Amino acid sequence: MAASSIKSPLILFIALSLFVRGIFAEVICDNLPTNFCSFAIASSGKRCVLENYKNDAGKLDFTCKTSEVVVERLAGYIETDQCVKACGVDRSFVGISSDAFLVPQFTQRLCSPSCYQNCANIVDLYFNLAAGEGVYLPLLCEKQKTEPHRAMMELLSSGGVATGFVADAPASSPF
Hints:
PAR1 protein, signal, two-stranded antiparallel sheet, PAR1, alpha+beta, single chain, globular, 8 helices
């Protein structure tokens, strides 16, 4: 009886220390499996990027690398599968492009409440991509809700810069 009463706390202690170690583990892009790389942020605060290369057999393979892009508030973060699905993004894409905004279904999913209000990492990334094109994402999302076809037409007709979306828009992410 005494031996089993000692084993219980010991097992609980070991389980809790493994759990705590998992919580405080450092995220290093180069050590991440490729299926967790995209939309991850290293403990250093730099975004992880999926890159392709030819392996020794001459076949296309993938690796996770650290980019130079720093995210200030989400260091050590790996995006959830729920957010990847809600936002309509794909972890297997190599490189992320603002061309995604030209696909109405993508913009609709990115601007949906399940993505826009719950997935700060993905929204921050696309906020910065949009800003690079002269588009203020919150205004694009607002336009997407009220006039989705007009939002796309303005984006297309202006060569990437949507009229009315950039007027004195703040330069930093809303997150």
